[in-house]
Amino acid sequence: MNANVNVNVNAKAKATAAPPLLTVRGLKVVVGGRHILHGVDLDVAALGTTALLGRNGAGKTTTVRGILGLVPRTGSVRLDGEETVHLATHALVRRGVGYAPEDRGVFAALSVAENLRLAERPGAGEPAYGLVYELFPELRTRARQAAGTLSGGQQQMVAIARTLLNGNRLIIADEPTKGLAPKVVTEVARVLERAAETVPVLLVEQNLAVVRRLARHCAVIADGRTAHRGPAAGLLDDPDAARRLLGVGHAHPHTRPHTQPHARPPAHPGTVQDQEAEA
Ligand SMILES: Nc1ncnc2c1ncn2[C@@H]1O[C@H](COP(=O)(O)OP(=O)(O)OP(=O)(O)O)[C@@H](O)[C@H]1O
């Protein structure tokens, strides 16, 4: 074995051995008297992307909101070993947790530059505009454009860019490719892939092609509980498990999980190709 191979093997072994950055155990959430999460267990790896999967209405967004303290929760949420389940959302943000929500949360009337400036966090060091504009050159050229006039893909880029500005330790992205045209999905996936080289990402994603490309690990939520944890490729390559856990006949690259019977109407039925292109 030559020296280079040795270095690679050691780096890989180190990555595998690194303790998870985020450890969630027995996470429970009750909203309006309704038990939505009954006990979610999840590890977010200290490197790369961890996917949070599940059928529509399984509890993925509620898990993310529970981690962030956006809904009342019990259980354990450890960030780098520190228990955070009692912390308010702003305290988690100060500890370096960045969030790109499902609705993107851009301020429509403000320009791209103003949206980014609002995300700057005092005390977090110099904002990483260099990184942001390297990953999203378009945001520089559109700096003065009102965010509400951007396409869905461009708004998603603003949402992800905001999480990268402050040297965060963890990025949580909730369905960043939802409703985007296939070409834009590829672009967003490429950016997330680059981002995950420097910051670990917890990715809620229904597009299994994106999961296959980005995620090394995954957790599957079903009916408010963790139904599976393990390597993402292992799940996607196992048709029986994919059918049982995600409701897909086989994990075809573009397949999205089906809705559960009697669940609320799907927010994003069909495949990515079926969806209306969002220019
Ligand atoms: N504020 C709320 N009040 C009542 N029920 C809620 C609330 N938020 C979520 N739910 C319900 O909790 C369940 C889980 O919802 P959640 O949005 O977490 O699922 P999800 O897996 O993210 O779904 P999707 O893939 O469709 O976004 C659903 O049945 C949903 O209707």
Automatic annotation (TrEMBL):
One Gene Ontology molecular-function label: branched-chain amino acid transmembrane transporter activity
SUPFAM superfamilies recorded: P-loop containing nucleoside triphosphate hydrolases (SSF52540)
GO BP term, example: L-amino acid transport
Keywords: Amino-acid transport, ATP-binding, Nucleotide-binding, Transport
Biased composition (Basic residues): 251-261
Family matches, as CDD domains: ABC_TM1139_LivF_branched
Gene3D superfamilies: P-loop containing nucleotide triphosphate hydrolases
Residue numbers spanned by region Disordered: 250-279
Domain ABC transporter: 22-248
Highest taxon of source: Bacteria
Family under the similarity heading: Belongs to the ABC transporter superfamily.
UniProt-recorded name of the protein: ABC transporter ATP-binding protein
Biological source species: Streptomyces coelicoflavus
Lineage: Bacteria, Bacillati, Actinomycetota, Actinomycetes, Kitasatosporales
